[in-house]
Amino acid sequence: MSETGIQARRAALEAIFGAAVAAAHPAGCLPPHLPEAPPNGRLIVLAAGKAGGSMAEVAEAHYRERGVDPARIAGLAVARHGYGRPLERLPMIEAGHPVPDAGSVAGAGQALDLAAAAGPDDLVLVLLSGGASANWVAPAGALTLEEKRAITRHLLRSGAAIDEINAIRKRLSRIKGGRLARAAHPARLLTLAISDVPGDDPAVIGSGPTVADPVSNAEALAIAERYATPLGAARALFEDPANETPKPGDPVFARSAFRIVMTPAEMLAAAATAAAAQGYVPLVLGADLEGEAREVAAAQARLAREALARGGRTAILSGGELTVTIRGQGRGGPNQEFALALAVELGGLAGVSALAADTDGTDGGAGAATDPAGAVVDETTLARAGARGLDPAGSLADNDSTGFFEALGDLVAPGPTFTNVNDLRVILVDGTAA
């Protein structure tokens, strides 16, 4: 394959990723769902997550254009460090992710206070996105922030799925698992959410602060024990009936509604449309893939080989959140690990290029907004690695996908995208290249 063909595939990958991210930005998906301001009471906007700043920014513009008196609008936006936006009316707090920090505690405390102060004539508008679990942290009982951080770090390294992690987080919190709705009652409550989770379960997005929690304390404790989570004093929270989350049918949800404004499936559909515009036939595997990153990479490498054998041009597309069980000491994330494992599995197969990246702009890493979102691979990846003395298998064993792709200049690093609809993996197969 010529260098021109390889570069053309790389440009196509970047265009597909860009189209997917643009489709998921709050500027396009949020305005049609924003409600009218209440006729008599206040509009209290509580935004949290990686899109918390941008959702609040869009909401402010929406109500400003409709002439709503700014004095009737109150609230707060909390987003990951580096994801803040310049807001006119609402205070903006940047907080830690994936491990919470003091900003997370301050943001959650203020959100709970604002919700609790809402009256029957007020509308509490919650703008929720992935990352809210870390951005809104209100330790329950006598639990300290550092104890919560230690539990979160362990779970992130354990290979636990996001719904399992969130089930545990709800027991450790005064805001998650429907507790924000409890604080806001009896005000009217509307949650508009950008989903980043498989199946778009409202109880999982941001750990479900405004919806009923179907998981019991005992079930959450079993999950924690399955991953050998060092709960310490936090175990008492799982064993205390008074710390149970509100369940379906609880009166605190009587005036509450929940609406999803953007899903990973819609993002993936936008990616498929962009792939078709680039001349590839989309093969969509689904928006909710889960599993160990390197195992999913092996399965998709087989699909790429089959597509290459059939001929033509195919774009293999998938979403969902993969996991990495960390055994090494390197740097990386599930998208970069997927890309590295895919490169190893493909073995330099001509006519195949791929991109795997998180739509929020960061993939694992140390929690900085400048962390890479993912990586790109093609038929030259292994050869270029060999020329630089890199060992792909060794890097994979050490979970050092960032170091590997950084040395090759193949990291995808768009910076904050101000949205979050989970991961996008694109494999372009050009069976006409031979």
UniProtKB/TrEMBL annotation:
Enzyme Commission (EC) number: 1.1.1.81
Record bears the keyword Oxidoreductase: yes
Domain MOFRL: 315-423
Alphabetical UniProt keywords: Oxidoreductase
MOFRL-associated domain ranges (all copies): 13-229
The organism's place on the tree of life at top rank: Bacteria
GO molecular function: hydroxypyruvate reductase [NAD(P)H] activity
InterPro entries: GK-like_C_sf, GK_N_sf, MOFRL, MOFRL_assoc_dom, MOFRL_protein
Coiled-coil zones: none
PANTHER family found in the cross-reference section: GLYCERATE KINASE (PTHR12227:SF0)
Identification of the protein by name: Hydroxypyruvate reductase
Organism: Labrys wisconsinensis
Taxonomic path: Bacteria, Pseudomonadati, Pseudomonadota, Alphaproteobacteria, Hyphomicrobiales
